[in-house]
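FAQ: What does a multi-protein file look like?

Like this. Sequence, then tokens, then the next protein.
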Amino acid sequence: MTPEPRQEPVSPPAGRSGAPALHRERTPRRRVLADRAARWVVTAGGLAIIAGILGILLFILWETWPLTRDAEVARTGALEQGEPPLAAVVVDEYRTHVAGLAADGTARARSLADGREVAAARVVPEGEGVEDPRATPDGALAAKLPGGRIVSLPVSFRTRFEGQERQIEPAFGEPAVLDLGAPAPGGSSLGAWAVRLDEDGVGAAAAQTADGQLAFVRRSVKENLLSGETTETVERFEAPVSYRLTRLVLDEAGRNLYGGTPGGEVLWWRVGAQGPADLQVVSAGEAGVSELALLLGDRSLVVGQEDGALSVWFPVADDGEGERLTRIRTFPPPSPRDGREGGSPIVAIVRSPRNKGFLAADAAGGLGLYHSTSERLLWRGATGVARPLSLAFGAKADAAYLAGAREIAGFRVDAPHPEITWKTLFGKVWYEGYDRPAWVWQSSSGTQEFEPKLSLTPLLVGTLKGTVYSMLLAIPLGILGAMYLSQFMHPSYKRHVKPVVEIMAALPSVVLGFLAGLWLAPRLERAMPAVLLMLVFLPAAVLLTGWLWSLLPRTFRQRVPTGTEMFGFAVALAAAGWGALALGPWLEAAAFGGSFQARLLDWTGLPYDQRNAVVIGIAMGFAVIPIIFAISEDAFSNVPPTLVAGSLALGATRWQTVTRVVLPTASPGIFSAVMVGFGRAVGETMIVLMATGNTPIMSWNPFNGFRTLSANIAVEIPEAPQGGTLYRTLFLAALLLFVLTFLGNTVAEVVRQRLRQRYSRL
């Protein structure tokens, strides 16, 4: 036998290292580069999105942060007083000149740059003097004269230009003198006094005479349009008063007169055709009233007292019995924590010409900057001015001047957003003209004396209200529709229905808002009783149809393709809707006396607005349904078929399988769908802008309107001055929207992960 040839194993070719080389197919270099480029692009896109969101957040924070700034008041210089010193001062808009009145009856205007005198005038003859000089809120200088008279001197600051240089020329007008009472033996017959006269000498004055009576003089001037002649009329009235008055203040219209007493009482007279009447007396405390001032608009009264306390008062409706002067806010005197022992008497109060703020000076040279609406002490400190005589606010509320016996000190005032506190943004505030504290958003008005009301609470409530009513419609229809489409509908119909529902999401919001506001709202107003009937008829029609379907023979039902029974339910729903519309007028006539809106107001006190939360619930629900439907349907479809088959194989019905197996397994995705729909509803702008009436009210009534944060931003931002309080408050509203959306998405992700972990073992 010849032996078989021996076969040696063949080794694979060795690589460079000497080890056997394995055969492998190499990936084309072009594909590797494409994969790397795609990875870089996707990574860069994701980082860009994150950076964009963070950039938006940082920009919003940058615009909002100045709302938290504190006020700053700093001394800028001083002007030496002459002899006699100016005891009452006013300053021009550009802070170049100061004008004042001295006790010798001389009015002088001086340059703040070099102190030189540029204008002078006398209000009394040589050798005579004036008593208690002061500046009026209108920028005039006034004082008491011997013989029971009061003089008012208009002051103007004329502006002219020499080339590009602005020149300010102070000027004094013609003094107007009002006689209020006969002189008392040995001197003036007047005690506390007040005057408000315009440049033509039209206005009123009041004073307490030597015999304790309250004298009131009203002066008017009528011009003959044909001849140009003017007729002056002076009316004098007296009213008894049993208090010694320390201060009087009169509003610009001459209709309200306020007084203070050494015992701390505050007196309020209504001034009518017959002079002061209807006296009201309230107590401000045990300390005497040392100063009174009216804030911008002449409705709020600031009361300064001997112990340094300050309080704000204004008339409030008193249970249908007229108005009652009520203490609204209190500013306590300085405490040892402020570096000062006790409080000194308030000697001067001057209102801000721009807002509801004011400055108050005390006898010890202390100065405080306050704001009434926000109840804020913005700044308080010592000025170094001995014996303060008068206080003036700059026309732009950016400067103040305190006149003392030896100097007139100037101060720079920087209080950019005094109206803003957490309370004014989210709490109840007692505004002028309101009978109680309230949440109010009203950013502007037709007058400069308007008190801005910037509470975000009505906007938050409106945002949640619109979201809740829209989700009441969108959640059940979106989730149950997705459940039926995924688990019960015939596949041939499913291919057509799902794209149609998803196309609904492409409808522009402005179109939905237009249809809701101009087409749907008036029809709902006429057919609201029918809508109420639909809430009963439609569920009843579904239950009745399902019960009738179960009564049909099993053999007949088995012949009907699964999922086609929806046509029977559609017919039943259409019939129920038609029946509700047909019976709506009968129900309105029988149960609501022919007018649903009138009966609603009589029974509940709730008004019916045509553009209301029901309209928004339908319109915005229509916009949110496709989002919830699409995500929920994907969640149902992603349930493993083995779970469904196993449940059916164990004898469970289709309904039991869907509710006990499919629904829990798909719950993470369903919850995500709901939260995404919630975010869509919270941020919706155009639908709520066009279909709610934009009324920022605090009410969950489904039949009235509301205003949301997003719609408010869209409405207000075009008119908001850049950098102003309203402008930055709108950015704060945008920050709240950002936070709401972020919290919603965070909660959705946390709950979704926990639900996924819980049902991952199924």
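And here is the next protein:
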Amino acid sequence: MVLEPSARLRIRVNTSADDAMRSDQRHGAQPENLTPPQIAACNRVLFENCLEKAKVSSLGSRFDEMLEWAGVAGWFASRKGWFGRLSSAQLENELLRAAASLAVPPRKPRSAAKARWLHVVTEAYGTLGHTNLCRRWIEYDSTVTHDVILLDQKDVVPANLASAVRNSGGVSVALDAMTTFMERARALREYAWANPDVVVLHTHPEDVIATVAFGVKGGPPVILVNHADHIFWVGCSVADLVLDIRTSGHLWTKAGRGVDRAVVLPLPLPDREPGLEEGPTRGELRRKIRAQLGIPQEAVVFLTIGSAAKYDPMNGLDFIQTAKEILSECKDAWLIAVGPPDEGSWNAAKKSTGGRVIAVGRQPSTGPFCAAADIYLEGFPAGSLTACLEAALAGLALVRDPGNCPPPFASDGVGLDEVRQPADLHEYTREAVRLAKNPQARNRLRQDLQGAIQSNYCRDGWLGRLQKIKEQIPTEHKLYPDFKSTPVDELRRDWLVAYNHAKDPEVSLTSITESLFIEAWKRTEGEPQVDAALWGKLMSCLTDGLTNDTSARDLDASSLAALNRRIKRRGGRARLISGARLAHLSGKHGVARRMIYSCLRENTWSLFDLEWIRLLLKTHLSPKWISNLKRWMPLHV
């Protein structure tokens, strides 16, 4: 495996974007470039600042306020605020303190012959991965009655999920997203103590409600599904068993999160190839799609699937350039990209290859494109595990990401581990060309892959694995507050830091700090501000190789005030927009309209903001009017 040294992963710093940064320069010039280790150190300081605010609130028994700050900390650490840790015992101990303040209801005896399981979801979506995992679990395991509770659902419950629950004999419950965290934690605890035999958490990484609800001993055993295995998440202290979806995530659970109660349960996949559950055969789809795209029927076709952002070049990892090199050696080969739109560098690649690179944008189903292809190229710098698995299930040969993209940022797991990961970009290109020119090798690989995926990820094989896991579930829920988080290795830490900021032309202390504090305005009821002490700690991250010196090299008073005014202006607007959207989705249209008007009073520039205009239309027009507007206005309302 080849990784770029952290010293070469550099991100340009804006040293003159605003008054705050000019003040920094007066106190001493900053380095020309901010390296990933420096960004990680700054992120850690900001995370600990949130944690300290949460602790102060907790000691004052202001638990709703504490949960707001805990949620901010989790949100930051699991996104651009990554600093190399996968969990935090300090954060979860504060959540357990809040949990102890809630009443413990009596456990109602269960008498039904059929077991009842409760799936807890932060927010469910119609098509995204973790919701599909939950839905297929419910559909496949007919030995259990399945309930679902949604903790922060901002839209209607997806019809396919609701149908699966109903068919199992269970119920779907969406808690009011406008109530406090503590109220929702109390409701979740009461439901869990009264109804299910087992609880399964499919929650978002930053979700704090479930940890508070299950932050006391007793009640049903709790299983946590590690669907976000490559990032920070909350819940280690309450998980009686962690279900990892692949090898690398399993290793990180034990070595990084400090949790040894973990087993691997692969993602459940459909029994038939995606998109071929009904309708035309694979051969018919193959001919149809190729004809529609102008691809010769006898051509070798590569396929890649992923959101456009996953292909953004980083540190020499340029998928489009590599694809062009592959096509230059395979004169009769084509590439279909599902996810990226036909614009920018994708359109340029199309032109430079004589139309042989075809980006088709987002599609409702990838199945038809899998049917049209022969070889799947995992996209980089970030791969897509589900896309890889579905392509292998569809019978495609596979080229895994190069070793420059280490798991868990590249795909791995049962079945896929049998396919050797290319050491670097050169070997990735060579393997793709080899498979394109050798149909016998291609067929052997696709058959082996398809068989491994079917036996481990499809209904019967997956249920067999689940049955073995059921035998390991304890009879009663316990707490595990003493887990010890260990930093991941620096190369993987810096890889994700660089990836998170790959599209940012400039990253400064103010930009990092502003992003956190604006989010804090959205998620808390107070008026969060940056003080001189915090700024001094952040500045110390950029001096003498990340020293721990916290001596004040802070902003002068006027510049610090200017920074906080900007945060207040942007954060206040973000809070109003977020609140208006939530109120509208909760059916409280009058509240939503008042927030929208307040936003306009605070900043008249909202009249030129499409996000504000969309919300204005949604809260004043009927669905029929909005549908008509979509036909002739590019507002995506």
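Q: Is there any per-entry metadata?
A: Some entries carry free-text notes. For the entry above: Residues 568-632 form one domain.
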